[in-house]
User: What shape does this take?
Amino acid sequence: MTMKLTNIMMEHLINHPPPFKFIFFLFLLYKNIFLVSIIMLILVSIDLEIFCLEKKVLHDGNGSKL
Assistant: This one.
């Protein structure tokens, strides 16, 4: 009886594996949320700085194109 129950459990695990990868990535995101947010803030600030520099290059002080 125990062997049959073990086989049924093994077949169930083989047919329906638990989503370890998804849970693992959520756990990593939760643990590193501050690091991820700091990296995103740095990237956004760099992007805004590049955008402002391009805007300055395209227009002179009066707003007309060079």
Summary: The chain is about 80% helix and 0% strand. The helical segments are 2-15, 20-31, 33-58. The first helix runs from residue 2 to 15. Residues 27 and 33 are 10 Å apart (CA to CA).
